[in-house]
Amino acid sequence: MLDPQQIEEWIVAGLACEQLSVDGDGQHFQAVIVSKEFAGLNRVQRQQRVNACLKEHFDTGILHALSMQCLTPEEAQNRG
């Protein structure tokens, strides 16, 4: 069973994150990712950036489902 901590490690290996949290039940996961790298990107581009970090794990079937909120530090601060 996949651990949320492992997904965090994969994301951090490919994306500079100011804040990151992943929760899940071993099959389906939810992530909140805060990164300066999202500045100027729309929602789809941000998710594509994260998916690029996880591509090999999606391709091998180790990771099946990840819903995500991708925010800049300013957006995260404004959301409270």
Structure in words:
With 80 residues, the protein is α+β, with helices and mostly antiparallel strands. It is 42% helix and 25% strand. The chain is built from 3 helices and 3 strands; from the N terminus they run αββαβα. It has a 3-stranded mixed beta sheet. α1 (4-14) crosses α2 (43-59).
What structural category arises from helix and sheet content? alpha+beta
Radius of gyration from the CA trace?
12 Å
The name of the CATH superfamily reads BolA-like
State the helicity in percent bands: 40-55%
The CATH topology corresponds to: GMP Synthetase, Chain A, domain 3
Which outline best applies?
Answer: globular
The separation of the N and C termini measures 33 Å
* Poorly predicted sequence stretches spanning 5 or more consecutive residues: none
Counting H and I runs of at least 4 residues, what is the number of helices? 3
